[in-house]
Amino acid sequence: MENLQNANPTILNLSDLPTRKPTASTKPKSALTSLAPSYANDPFAPSSVPELVSDDSEDDDSVVESIDAQEIYDLVSTMCDPEHPITLGELAVVNLDHITVQDDPEELTGLITLEFTPTITHCHLATVIGLGLVVRLQQALPPRFRIDVRCREGTHTTDRQLNKQLADKERVMSALENETLMGLVGKMIETCK
Amino acid sequence: MKEAALYMHHAEKDPLEAKKIAHDTAKRIESRELKLLELVQSLGEYLTDDDTTVRAKAIGYLSAVLGELGPKSLSRQQVPVITQFLSDRLEDETGLKEVATGLTSLTKMNFFGNAEATRIMAALLGVDLPKHPPTTRFAVLTLIDALMSGNRDALKAMGDKFVTGLADLVGGEKDPRNLMILFSVMKVILVEFDIVRHTELMFDIVYCYFPITFRPPPDDPYGITAQDLKNRLRECIASTHYFAGQVFPSLIEKLDSTSQNVKMDVLQTMAACALSYGPTTMSAQSSQLWDAVKFEVLNSAGEDDLANEALQTLKAIATCLSKGLTTVPPANTPLARYLKAIVKECLELLKEPQQKQAKPAGQILATVATASAPACAFIIQSTLPALLLIYSDAGIIAKQRALMQCLNRFFESAIAVYGSWTDVSAAPGIENPLEEHREKLFGIYSQALMGSNKEETSFRLTAMRGLGKLCDIRRFLADNEIGMVVQYLDEIALDREEKDEVRDEALQNLRKISKFKSSLIMQITFPAFMAQLPDSEQESKEENKPYLGTLEALAKLSLERPVFEVLLTRLLNKLEVVLSAGSGPEYPRAILATILHVLQQRSQSTLEDTKAYYNRLIPPLLTKTVVPLVAGGSAVLADDSVLDVTGRLVRIITHELDAENQEMVMRSVFELFVNHSPSNIITENAGIVASTFRPLDKDASKEAAGSTVILTSILAASRREISLPVERVPSFLAHIIELAQTPKSAAHRLSLLRLIALVINKWTTTADSVAVKEQSQALLSSISNMEQLRILFWIATALLLRGDKYGSEVMLHLVELLSHAELGATAARGFAVLLGHDEFLNAENFAVVRLLYKQRVFSQCVPQIIDMFKKADSQTKPNLLTALSNILRSVPSTIITASLPSLLPLLLQSIELHDADVKAATISTLEITILENADVVKEHVAGVITRLLKAACDRGEEGNTPAVRKSALRCLRAFPGKLRGELLLPYKRTVLKQLQLALDDPKRTVRKEAVDTRVKWWALGEPDE
After folding, report:
1. Pick the CATH number of A75-190 from 3.40.50.720, 3.30.300.130, 3.40.50.20, 3.40.250.10
2. d(CA B416, CA A17)
3. Which SUPFAM superfamilies match (chain A) (predicted)?
């Protein structure tokens, strides 16, 4: 084992992390209510809906589910810390409360801000974490969103400097060319669920 | 001796012929036609030949003859002579392989003794073995192995000379096949021989192979794996405690390896050594091992293989140190010293139970505690007071929860050591160390579950799981305490304000308790749950008493037989009450569905049971269903939706009856439906029923007709050997086919169609087949409506299942109908029936199902469809594609693969159809193809990707439902990793760009798939991949 900066961080319990409330369609159906009469499924009828398609009952495109903070949280919380095989959610590096989404249907562009909290104030991997978050969000969100990832104020000894780096598009771009850095970032994203 | 010359001539070119020559010679020696001495003498000239291969072949002949001789063929005088002769040949190392093989054959002779063994071994020790090729070394090692198993004492008597000599002989061996023999020989030496003076030498011979990094060549003829070698080597290393001083420091050093495999091997070897070296040796090693191995657990995320292996190693040490102990270990014992260090360090880490290393610390304690009852006692006694103190001082709930998780692991250890209620093995002599803290633990956990805020979900779930485990420990909690837990769980399970996951967990724990304390469930839970069931649908609505959840909970708890008996009684009583209150069909259906659900879940019930269930359930239920139809009263049980459940109940119960009882039931049901005589299925008013109940009449009421499902269910459940109680099967069939052309409801239609298929598949004889053919032909020639089409599909299915050639004929007519202007589209959908699974018509229900019937349907249909497609107009094409997708959906992918090249163009067109079902089916076929046999798609990558992208991203196109979009995305995700990177890289940019559209999909689940797919494509060609 190499020397870890923070070998024994505090970990949140998975079941205490914020999750989306299960909707009716994701809840497992009860055995009794799902017992459809056998004659209800007529393969000859044009409206027959085999299981393959019917797994979401809200199969209706007119109901729009817009991108919200929980969705952003779900995208990044299962990323892995570069130092531990533990997720950023469990380490409380990312928190639902520190994510905001501005997505006005009237506007052409939207804005997502995410503030992260390193596990210790002098963590030298904070830049990598920030970069990883930027890459992940850029990959996973439609291009109309501007993405603002920053280190939460007062949670790191050099947070100003760090945020300057993360806000600088050119520096982010050149960091993405760096193979070692991208290797680390790739590892972080690998664990995403 | 011509044979010798002949043998030597054939030895290389024709080994079989050579073997035959040797065999013949051996037969002649056994029949005393030839003397062995003569044979040896005849070799004289060859044995002095200058050519080494000639000498080797000559000895080879002798060896081959010896190999063919039976164990009694050589006399007491001959064995030593031949032994001497061959042993002397060992000096001439040219024929070493042949000599060794011959000697190995000699060891099998009855008169082979220790003197001969010693002579051979002594001669062998003079051989410079390492310079010989592997096959020769193999022959020598085989010889040594034979001596080791037959004449071990002789080798032992040779003393140091053998031990050190062998070391020189086999040093540096590298061939895996030879190593397998060497390791097993070495193990015997290490265990049984006097090696104390040569420990170091022995250690060097064996340990130099650790760790095994061997990888078998792809065409390895011997099938030796690295694991085989690892296991054998490990046995050697673990076989003598004299190695301890050298093994452990070296293993600890190797634990620093960066290779996961090596670390696993090290940990497993440590554990094997610990288990075999004995407590005296291990007491000197245990502390340095703990210091080395603990990091593998503490620094891991806790769940990986390496950490688990390390836990097992720590446990193995405790197991070894526990040997001979039957009490809580006193402080001066090696076990206590070992555990004390562990406890000290782990307790320190558990002081902050939320931190990362607390969980592994808890795992270490809990795992080591399973080593033995003394270890369990020591660990629990020396940690529990401190842990309980940390709990009470924790202050915040998250901290208490983390600590509770650690305690829950201790409970699991207690179950491992002391057993659960259902275990029958003897319990350890030491009192369960948790006993001392029983009341305290019960108090804390009860308080946590019932006394904390309902919002504290994970805390209460942890407490509930802990209580469940405490209940499970054998003879730990008293019945009244478990009863309390049952009450808590009842309360939670019935409280509609609790979250679903909490209620589900409560039910699961109740279910577990029902396995060992079913009486408590029947006494406490049942009355509580039954009281929640309303007496009518009206009451359910007015007093907000939903019955579905309660019924479902009852079903989950009633899998044990005694509990089910109670459930059955109570639910049938409830049904009575509900019916007399004048109910709609929903509630009665739910009650019956509950019983059905339990029966479906129960593992194979005994026949005795089922007969009782039949009598209690079926005739009363059918009576209540039928009598109101003829004598008036609530006909709610004759509602199609209720009858559907009744039919399934009848089927599942009748299916379990023995043949004799099934025959009885069959007769009764025909009396009721066909013969119109009083049937003993009807328990009251049987006379009126017999005179007026006419469900199979053309003008029967919809309800009466609907009850046909009962007849169908019984036919489905019955064995084929039980004959149909009708005069002529074809006339009965004709009548049903007639009825099926004008069904009165969807339920009635399905009952009739199934009835037709069941009769054809299970009860038509060869003689009847002409009639079946005629009836089908009549339908085919005059087909004009959908009902006839359905009947034909079911007839075809029944025939195809039993491998009837006429079935294929009907099927091919149906394929032709795909171009029919009115019926084509319906026919296309009907192909789902042909290969689909039917609950009533299958092998489990005694239908005739030929192996490979799906293959046959596939190979007969698909070429014709492809053929028709080439000439088809635009109206017919969708029908052909729909039929195709319906066939592909039900055929194993291995069958499809071979035809894929010709199918692929059609599949690509199917994706473009505007029918969501067909699209989804096609895409899933494609996905399976890519996952299992991507090469088929290789030439069509561009076409497939373009169409999938359109299906995934073009929300404007009809048929691209969210489900289709999702499956298209999943299918795209299957490409990377299945096809070579360079085939996909040209499309990477397009795919990533296009998928941005899917990232903005209105549906969240689609976006999720898009993200995952993009990540896969994004990583394509990255240096890290």
Report:
1. 3.30.300.130
2. 32
3. Fe-S cluster assembly (FSCA) domain-like (SSF117916)
End-to-end Cα separation, chain A, in angstroms: 26
Instruction: Please report the pLDDT score of residue B459 as a whole number.
Output: 94
Q: What is the pLDDT of residues B588-604, one digit of tens each?
A: 999 999 999 998 887 65
Decide if A11 and B300 are in contact by the 8 Å CB cutoff.
no
B728 by DSSP, 3-state: which? coil
Short-list B668, B645, B749, CA closest to B705: B749
Distance CA B8, CA B613 (A): 80
Pairwise CA distance, residues B619 & B710, whole Å: 11
Q: CA angle, B303 as apex, B297 and B306 as ends, to 5°?
A: 55
B967-985: pLDDT as tens digits: 999 999 999 988 888 889 9
Ramachandran bin of A92, using left for φ above 0, alpha for ψ from -120 to 50, beta for the remaining angles: left
Residue B415: phi and psi, rounded to 5, are -65, -40
Q: Where are the beta strands (DSSP E) in B162-259?
A: none
Give residue B92's identity as a one-letter amino acid code: D
- Contact indicator for B757, B701 with CB cutoff of 8 Å: no
Beta strands in B799-924 (DSSP E): none
Assigned domain for B1011 exists: yes
d(CA A44, CA B745): 15
Residue B928: which domain range? 897-1025
CA distance B974 to B934: 9
Distance from CA of A166 to the nearest CA of B (A): 21
Alpha-carbon span B247 to B237, nearest angstrom: 8
Which stretches of B782-823 are DSSP H helices? 786-801, 805-816
Whether B401 shows a pLDDT value over 70: the answer reads yes
Interface test with B, best of A29, A61, A79, A144 (most B CBs within 10 A): A61
Q: Do A38 and B644 touch (CB under 8 A)?
A: yes
- Residues whose CB is less than 8 angstroms from the CB of residue B681 and which lie 6 or more positions away in sequence, other chains included: B618, B619, B622, B623, B665, B668, B669, B671, B672
Evaluate whether residue B391 is within a structural domain. no
Do residues A77 and A54 make contact, with C-beta atoms less than 8 angstroms apart? Answer: no
Amino acid identity of B52? T
SS3 call for A92:
coil
Q: Which of A44, A59, A179 sits opposite B962 (nearest CB)?
A: A59
- Residue A111: φ, ψ to 5°: -135, 135
Kindly determine whether residue B645 and residue A35, on different chains, have CB atoms separated by under 8 Å.
yes
Cβ contact B461–A50 (<8 Å): no
Distance CA B1011, CA B1015 (A): 6
- Kindly provide the residue ranges of all beta strands, DSSP E only, lying in B477-544, ordered along the sequence: none
- The C-alpha atoms of residue B282 and residue B268 are separated, in whole angstroms, by 16
Report the number of distinct structural domains present in chain B: 1
Q: Give the ranges where B676-724 is alpha helix by DSSP (H).
A: 686-692, 702-706, 708-717
Pairing of strands A94-102, A110-116: antiparallel
Q: At what angle do helices B438-450 and B397-418 cross, to 10 degrees?
A: 130
Query: Of B747, B921, B962, which is closest to A39 when you measure between CB atoms?
Result: B747
Domain contains B660: no
Neighbouring C-beta atoms of residue B56, cutoff 10 Å: 21
Three-class secondary structure of residue B283 per DSSP: helix
Tens-digit pLDDT profile for residues A157-187: 888 888 888 888 888 888 888 888 888 888 8
Write down how long chain B is: 1025
Tell me whether residues B304 and A7 touch, CB distance under 8 A.
no
List CB contacts of B328: < 8 A, sequence separation 6 or more: B374, B377, B378, B381, B430, B433
Q: Across all residues in chain B, what is the average pLDDT? A: 91
Instruction: For residue B991, tell me if it sits in a domain.
Output: yes
**Residues of chain B neighbouring A54 (CB-CB closer than 8 A):** 963
Identify which of B745, B962, B1023 has the shortest CB distance to residue A61.
B962
